[in-house]
Amino acid sequence: MTDTASRADVTVAPTADVDERAAIGARTRVWHLAQIREDATVGSDCNIGRGAYVGPGVTLGDNCKLQNHALVYEPAILGDGVFIGPAAVLTNDEYPRAVTPEGRLKDGHDWTAVGVTIGDGASIGARAVCIAPVTVGRWALVAAGAVVTKDVPDFALVVGVPARRIGWVGRAGHPLTPRGDGVWLCPSTGTEYLEKNDTLQEL
Fold first, then answer.
1. Number of CB atoms found within 10 A of residue 131's CB
2. In the prediction, which pLDDT does 1 show?
3. H or E stretch including 196?
4. Which fold has domain 4-169?
5. 94-110: per-residue pLDDT in tens?
6. Which contacts qualify for 91-97: CB closer than 8 Å, 24 or more apart?
7. Domain limits, the chain
8. How confident is the model at residue 14 (pLDDT cuts 50, 70, 90)?
9. pTM, to two decimals
10. What share of the chain is helix, strand, coil (3-state, %, to 5)?
């Protein structure tokens, strides 16, 4: 991007590469060596860390944070307040191959990109991988190094390879404590949640 003044209150490091066709919200900061591709939409008050990548047509909501070297491939959709940890990857190819069965190098016409969807407030830990086309629910927490191959419910805490749910987290990100009768308590905020049919909702 050559003219940062055309985007109100946006801070772009001189070494960042922001395509002129990308839409960047007010007060968003794009740090060194980050790349935001054509037709990407980045909301207001976002922080795009060093070396992060946002693919063509990707959508980020407001108040998102992509840590250093996070890779968000198209056509991912991230809600408001999403955290993507350092070196985490959101993939976009269900059947990855460099070449066709005949041995010809693939191009964009040889495959169909599928995206990862991340709900509002969810967090993806460092070096975690989300395999498209999974959906990670609102306020869920994917642990560092996890590999997500199935949809993650709202407020779920998932760990491991492949990722599996081991508990629930609240909006503050702290693991919830069971109170009995399906009620869970956030030790940080005191908010109560109700578990029913493998889902969790705030009371």
1. 19
2. 38
3. strand 192-196
4. UDP N-Acetylglucosamine Acyltransferase; domain 1 (2.160.10)
5. 999 999 999 999 998 88
6. 91/116, 91/129, 91/130, 91/131, 91/132, 92/55, 92/116, 92/132, 93/132, 94/132, 94/133
7. 4-169
8. very high
9. 0.93
10. 5, 35, 65
